[in-house]
Specification:
This is Deoxyribodipyrimidine photo-lyase. It catalyses: cyclobutadipyrimidine (in DNA) = 2 pyrimidine residues (in DNA). By secondary structure, the chain is α/β, with parallel strands linked by helices. It contains 19 helices and 6 strands. It has a 6-stranded mixed beta sheet with strand order 1-6-5-2-3-4, sandwiched between helices. α15 runs antiparallel to α16 and α15 crosses α17. It is globular and about 70 Å long. It starts with 9 loop residues before the first strand and ends in a 7-residue tail after the last helix. The model has no long low-confidence stretch (mean pLDDT 96).
């Protein structure tokens, strides 16, 4: 039964009517690439039963989106294969479509949309999806509804976005109990949805079989065809749940003290779930649920919440410092970025959103002499004088990710070694979105913009280039951490790389 309290997650995309003559309720997956723990699907099921119409779940992969590559395409197609298997098991009608050079989305989607009574889609506030939703709303003859399944708290429940985690945190804590109680369905099923036998399946749908992925990749174009999938890095819900299970056992018990340590993957204590969260293959709600229930010594319920720690980054969710630390990252810091976009949806955010003190600081030091200046191409090929920075860049290119702490250092140094803040931003945005599996996301921008002073405070002493913006150095990083195993790991990746510019 759908909770009325979750209706706050639903907003109208247009003012058009529900078409009684329509053949189906149409849920277009654009961001939440999963069936379980999905408010968009929950609401679609509710509407199918309410209007007594079949439900069609449609998922698409476009070819030539900005920064597209075989790396990202394969990850998405692997996800579709998992969703296809889940849909078959649960009895849902699922139509996956993958654009190729022979068949575009515009070729099949108009005829499909004409048959809909209502279209429901995911309310993702970043990248090309807001503009895509606006165009879809105009094109449709029927009502478009957008559903927020981005986090555990409904983003519409906040009156505005926030410039600091310390300001958002108490508001998130206040909303947590109701949001937790009103989580989405972990096991949605098709029982009670009218029969879909009369619906005509469109041509050129993807089979949902993993053995067909390779042939589809060969028929897809992309912006960066040279950026290949990372060997061993799999997309899809099954892989996300496997990694999450491993993290609960091997990472979470050590998270608060060891998450920042740069290490080889087999010794890292972070979750590796960021790409799967970005593509919606795993839900924040299910992660929160399992993390809170992971301590065998405590039977967790909302009564365990310690309200004396309201607004603090420790102690609120659970007696375990590891659980608190992880959930503060997953909820507070993640929602900071999603709210920034949700309250003003757009393709990107840039330096214009920086707090006034940071903008003034950058402007005051715009003319400062840079000891080193590199082009974007030199950054991309890891040709700087700094072996730690080069290692982080190589990790990004070769694995599609950067270790959490080094990602901050990576961003700070691009600012220090670029001719201007604007060029540094463009370099960071392009390199991150081009190579990172979790790029093109609200948290990509909060991470990049944090390097320029967003969501932070002024620091002393005032420095060249940065002014009062927080400074980070490779020297202090090398003293803070034992980097030898990490650097050896990066060298081993280089030896296996097929990319010529690291040879």
């Amino acid at each position: 039964m759908l909770s009325e309290k979750n209706l706050i997650r639903v907003r109208e995309g247009n003012r058009k009517p529900v078409l009684d003559e329509g053949e189906c309720i149409f849920y277009w997956i654009r961001a939440n690439r999963r069936l379980a723990w999905n408010h968009s699907l929950d609401y679609s099921i509710h509407l199918a039963k309410k209007f007594k119409k079949p439900l069609v779940i449609f998922e698409s992969v476009m070819m030539d989106f900005e920064w597209s590559s075989p790396r990202l395409h394969q990850f998405l197609l692997e996800g579709i294969c998992d969703t296809s298997a889940d849909a078959e098991k649960s009895g849902f009608v699922y139509w996956p479509f993958v654009e190729t050079k022979e068949h575009s989305l515009s070729e099949i989607i108009p005829n499909i949309l004409e048959k809909a009574s209502i279209v429901i889609t995911d309310d993702f506030p970043c990248f090309f999806l807001p503009e895509h939703a606006e165009k879809l709303a105009e094109r449709l003859n029927c009502k478009l509804l957008l559903v927020d399944s981005n986090s555990i708290t409904p983003l519409a429940s906040y009156e505005k976005s926030f410039g600091y985690a310390r300001v958002l945190r108490p508001k998130l804590h206040d909303r947590f109990v109701e949001s937790y109680v009103c989580r989405s369905n972990p096991k949605p099923n098709s029982k009670g949805i009218p029969n879909s036998n009369t619906l005509k399946k469109p041509n050129f749908l993807f089979s949902g079989k993993k053995e067909d992925i390779s042939s589809y990749l060969q028929r897809m174009s992309s912006k960066f065809p040279e950026i290949l999938p990372v060997p061993g890095r799999l997309g899809g819900r099954k892989e996300s749940l496997k990694l999450f299970k491993k993290f609960l056992k091997e990472g979470l018990p050590f998270y608060s003290e060891e998450r920042s340590e740069p290490r080889p993957p087999e010794r890292i204590k972070s979750s590796y779930l960021s790409p799967y969260l970005h593509f919606g293959m795993i839900s924040v709600e299910e992660i929160v649920t399992s993390v809170l229930e992971s301590d065998p010594k405590i039977t967790w319920s909302p009564d365990i919440l310690n309200h004396s720690y309201r607004g603090k980054n420790e102690g609120f969710f659970h007696p375990s410092p590891n659980i608190n630390s992880f959930l503060d990252e997953l909820l507070t810091w993640r929602e900071l970025g999603y709210l920034l976009f949700y309250k003003d949806p757009s393709f990107r955010k840039d330096l214009s959103i920086l707090p006034n003190w940071a903008r003034l600081s950058l402007e005051a030091h715009r003319g400062d002499k840079r000891e080193y200046i590199y082009t974007k191409e030199e950054f991309e090929k890891a040709l700087t004088h700094d072996p730690i920075w080069n290692a982080a860049q190589k990790e990004l290119v070769l694995t599609g990710t950067i270790q959490n702490y080094l990602r901050m250092l990576w961003g700070k140094k691009v600012i220090e070694w670029s001719p201007s803040p604007e060029e540094a931003f463009r370099t960071l945005e392009d390199l991150n979105h081009k190579y990172a599996y979790d790029g093109r996301d609200p948290n990509s921008y909060t991470g990049i913009l944090w390097c320029f002073g967003a969501f932070d405070r002024p620091w002393s002493p005032e420095r060249a280039v940065f002014g009062n913006i927080r400074y980070m150095s490779s020297d202090s990083t090398s003293k803070k951490f034992k980097l030898k195993p990490y650097l050896e790991y990066i060298r081993s990746l280089e030896g296996m790389s097929e990319l010529p510019f690291f040879k």
